[in-house]
Amino acid sequence: MAFSADELRVLRRALAIALHPSTADDEDVSTCLRLAHSVDEAVHESARLRDFLLADLARYRAALPGTVAGYLPLLEEALGAGYQPAPDDLAALRALRGNAVAADLLARCRVLAERAVRAKLAGRQAATEPARATVPASRTRLHALPGGGDAAEERRPAGPGPDRRPATP
Length: 169
Description:
Elements: H1 5-19, H2 26-62, H3 68-80, H4 87-95, H5 100-128, H6 151-154
Helix pairs in contact: 1-2, 2-3, 3-5, 4-5
């Protein structure tokens, strides 16, 4: 996900509001809410694109071996996006292992599948142990908090001047 310069300015301001107690004006709150809405839309679009990628991958896998030229790059892209290979993917790659790219992907998928199985087994073992507190992975809306830097500092002209110091990272 990439932010524009304006979105980064708003994000910086939102973080300043959260870190430094003072009152936030209505303009700051509305820009923070717009940024939160934009981030929500980007997350929704990302999920939609992921669903499309996985459906496309299943279509290509079902049409193998004729679609090997499309299936292998699509699987590689899905793996790069965090996809855990399914047993059908492993079976398809075993059938295509005469292809060098398929053989490489099969080795990569075996490693990922093994990690997933180990994590699952560790989860079952942990279920027999006393439960530890975990933080739920929920997505909540951004709410403006009281605080932040001087609003006049944000609205100063961005030109060189005698009282203008370079911004620190």
